[in-house]
Structure formats: C-alpha cells, structure tokens
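Hi R.,

Here's the chain you asked about this morning:
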Amino acid sequence: MSGRTAKLAFAARPSDADAWVRTREATPSHEPEVSSFTARLTIDVTPEQRGRIKIAAFQRGRTVADMLRELLAREFPATDGDPQ
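And here is the predicted structure, written out as tokens:
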C-alpha cells in the first residue's frame, strides 16, 4: 500500500461563531451568484413536499431556489438593525 498521511478533521471548530457564519464561502461555478454574500441552507422535507415545491416552481416558470428565496424574504423581512 502507498503511504498515507494522517487523516485531517473535516473542519476546525470556529472560535467566533458570528464571524464564522458571516464568512464568505466560494460560490460554485455552476450556480449564478445571487448577491455579494450567499450562504447555503439545507432543510429536510418529505418526498411529497419536495415534489409539490418542484411542481409549483415549474408551473410558475421559476427555479426552486428563487421561489424559496422570495418566500423567505417575505416571511423574514430585513429590519433596521440587520446587516446588509
């Protein structure tokens, strides 16, 4: 077998959680950049919910991501103290 180096941890635990959350990550090249700062959010939904969301987006001629961004913006509008 070839010599292997010690396995590194997946990610180091951040010392400052707020700074870590605001850290800009590289945007994948296959996705257009939505704004100067983007963050990925992963949620678990049932297969039925996923299907309904995808059908609604298709019927509206939208992407699922764009449709959900608009929904989240409506549900959680920016307030005066929020960072831009």
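One quick note: Helices lie at 17-22, 47-60, 64-75.

Cheers,
M.
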